[in-house]
Amino acid sequence: MTDKKIQLDIYTSENPFLLSSHSPQETSTLRGKVSLRLEKPTKLCSLSLHLKGHAESAHINWKVHRLKNSSTHKMVDVGLNLFKSHKDSYMLTAGTHIFDFELPVSNHLPETVQSNYFDIKYKLVAMAKRHLSTNIVATKPITISRLSEEVDEMEFSISISKMWQSVMGYDILMKKQVCLGENVPIEYTFRPVKSGIRIIKYSHTLCETVRYVDPKTNHTKVEHKRVPLTSDPHGRGSNTKFTHLLIPDGLQPDVTSDMICADHKLEVKIFVDSRGQRKSITVSFPINLMSANELLLNEPLPMYEETEYSRSLPPVYESAQITAIGA
After folding, report:
1. How far apart are CA 176 and CA 186, in angstroms?
2. Phi-psi region for residue 150, left (φ > 0), alpha (ψ -120 to 50) or beta?
3. Dihedral of the CA atoms 8, 11, 12, 14 (nearest 10)?
4. CA dist 263 to 20, 158, 213, 248, 310, Å?
5. How high is the pLDDT of residue 68?
6. CB 49: neighbour CB atoms within 10 A?
7. PANTHER family under this entry (predicted)?
8. Which of 71, 227, 272, 305 has the smallest number of Cβ neighbours within 10 A?
9. How far is CA 210 from the centre of its chain?
10. CA 112, 25, 73, 101: dihedral to nearest 10 degrees?
């Protein structure tokens, strides 16, 4: 926020911020910097930073119950003091003051979600308190994601090789992690067991299951969605087929939390002509559906201006304490 002569900004080392596990006894560390730019010497009482999160109902029919019986539900409010004056205020020199922060965040927090029934949102709030003057506040939205508990064993591709009795063997190869709006390549290899087998077509359906839980009433709602996918087939020889599947936007990416769980499967149906008889087989397997944010690499911190740069911090800065605000 800019107040003519005072500018307060928040920078994080990563956004989205990744939680490393699901255990509420463990924490992940959110790191970054708060920049305070002063045009002239200014007295401040304190400078604090808070992570705030809430679930906000979408006001769509939740049967008899409405999420938490109110429009919002606080998920977290934790923070730290970057400095606090021992007296009424502390005089900071003109220039740019940079405050590094490390904020422990519970790994049990739900991920950032935008869904049909509620949204889960997080933001960082920095506040510079002034004696007998208006406080300066800066906010920064932040996305929280979670690494899979099986990240070390995660399969990045799907390779299926099976035999369709008396008809043919088939291989299916594609990547397992797909993104909303992406064109995903998938390759088929068919091995007919006898002559006269002809592939007519194959279709693809994305199956989505989302389970919502009201955190106050424990009321549960489950939604199932079947979305036919468009494809662009190409030939690679008589028995090898190659196509691209267009993953539509508007679906709920994979998520696992106490309030919402979403998972996806790809259903493939293969139709063949076997000497005048039409036959079909359906193959279904799980895939990981992600948003574009989850594919972003950690972004480096922006460059800070070295001119008017100052680290003349109050003496209590190094002993800043973590504080938790009760729900």
Report:
1. 10
2. alpha
3. 150
4. 20, 16, 15, 15, 49
5. 46
6. 23
7. ARRESTIN DOMAIN CONTAINING PROTEIN (PTHR11188), FI21816P1 (PTHR11188:SF17)
8. 305
9. 16
10. -60
Element (DSSP H or E) covering residue 9: strand 6-12
Question: CA 19 to CA 232: how far, in whole Å?
Answer: 37
HSE-up (13 A, CA, CB side) for residue 37:
15
CA separation for the pair 120, 103 (Å, rounded)? 20
Per-residue tokens: 199: 């592939």
CA atoms of 39 and 57, how far apart (whole Å): 42
Closest by alpha carbon to 3, among 99, 189, 128?
128
Those residues of the chain that have pLDDT short of 50 are: 1-2, 64-69, 150-153, 296-327
Nearest to 115 by CA among 4, 245, 221, 196: 221
Question: At 210, which amino acid appears?
Answer: V
CB burial of 10-46 (b: ≥16 within 10 Å; e: otherwise) equals: bbbbbbbbbbebbeeeebbebebbbbbbbeeebebbb
Question: Are the C-beta atoms of residues 146 and 165 closer than 8 Å to each other?
Answer: no
Eight-state DSSP code of residue 318: G
Which is it for strands 118-129 and 46-57: parallel, antiparallel or unpaired? antiparallel
Closest residue by Cα to residue 258 from 55, 51, 77: 55
Q: Token pair of 100, please?
A: 């590094």
Q: Residue 249: which of 163, 180, 327 has the closest Cα?
A: 180
DSSP 248-273: PSSSPPPEESSSEEEEEEEEEEEEEE
Q: Are 251 and 180 in contact (CB under 8 A)?
A: yes
Query: What are the DSSP calls for 157-201, one per residue?
Result: EEEEEEEETTTEEEEEEEESEEETT-EEEEEEEEEESSTTEEEEE
